[in-house]
Write a structure and sequence with these properties.
- By secondary structure, this protein is an all-alpha fold.
- The protein has one domain (2-146): Ferritin (Up-down Bundle).
- The protein is built from five helices and no strands.
- Helix 4 runs antiparallel to helix 5 (125-146).
- It is elongated and about 55 Å long.
């Protein structure tokens, strides 16, 4: 019974980490979109939003099926992210600056994925596969965003 409790706890913690990672990405992309002047970058952001939404939905489905309550980022974190993006784009709305901001956020997402892999290694295969999917998405986004620097 202890192993099941440990696995469920790892699942909950990993699902929460995945969900919060995807939600942070979605909020960042949404907050930055109004500053984007480059059509190609705007299209890239729209594609990324779609993929993060899919991960978020898959996370919610797994959590619901396992009767796990995953938490979104708290309001303070959301306000902090919004204000940081707005302050950073007040003076520089260039495509390269926006790409740099997105890259920094995406690198943070990769770091969070790698930490979650290590910290919650007891999670089941379905959850770890979703984390791997998110990590691959983050890595793909880094490669795509490099072209806008």
């Amino acid at each position: 019974m202890e192993n099941q409790d440990m696995e469920k706890n790892c699942n909950k913690l990993m699902l929460t980490a995945i969900y919060q990672n995807a939600q942070t990405a979605l909020q960042s992309l949404d907050n930055i979109m109004s500053s984007v002047k480059c059509d190609a970058l705007a299209s890239e952001i729209a594609n990324q939003e779609g993929e993060y939404n899919i991960i978020s939905q898959e996370c919610e489905i797994i959590a619901k099926s396992e009767e796990i309550d995953i938490k979104d980022n708290n309001m303070f974190e959301k306000i902090k992210l919004w204000s940081s993006i707005k302050l950073s784009t007040i003076s520089d709305k260039s495509t390269s600056h926006i790409a740099e901001m997105l890259l920094i956020g995406t690198f943070m997402g990769v770091i969070n994925c790698l930490k979650s892999q290590s910290d919650f290694a007891g999670a089941d295969e379905e959850v770890t596969n979703l984390l791997s999917k998110l990590l691959r998405l983050e890595e793909k986004n880094i490669e795509s965003l490099k072209t806008y620097l």
